[in-house]
UniProtKB/TrEMBL annotation:
Pfam families: MoCF_biosynth (PF00994). InterPro entries: MoaB/Mog-like_dom_sf (IPR036425), MoaB/Mog_dom (IPR001453). It comes from Ganoderma boninense. Residues 1-12 have a biased composition (Low complexity). Residues 1-25 are annotated as: Disordered. Residues 55-98 form the MoaB/Mog domain. One of its GO terms (molecular function) is FAD diphosphatase activity. GO terms for biological process: flavin-containing compound metabolic process. This is BHLH domain-containing protein.
Amino acid sequence: MSAPAATASNADPSPPPSTPKPEAAAQELPKFNFELSPVPANPLGEGRYIKTAAALVIGDEILNGKTLDRNSNYFARFCFEHGIDLKRIEVIPDEEEDM
């Protein structure tokens, strides 16, 4: 015997569990979607560390708006959280001479 189909009278009006609530969406940021490499430890125990960073985003789909560039936001947040001064993010087209 199969379960009865959902009708207007017995359908659950709440959104599915995977849909974030609007107020929670602003607070819950998704995990980084790029690989993180550990900052190499200074063998002397002090001194050298990553101070500044930059990012190069390559893609026509970013420039023409077909794809939303979320990685820049994640990378900037990662740098801020780790005390790294993000100096620049550049977006260039998929053209070899621009690379």
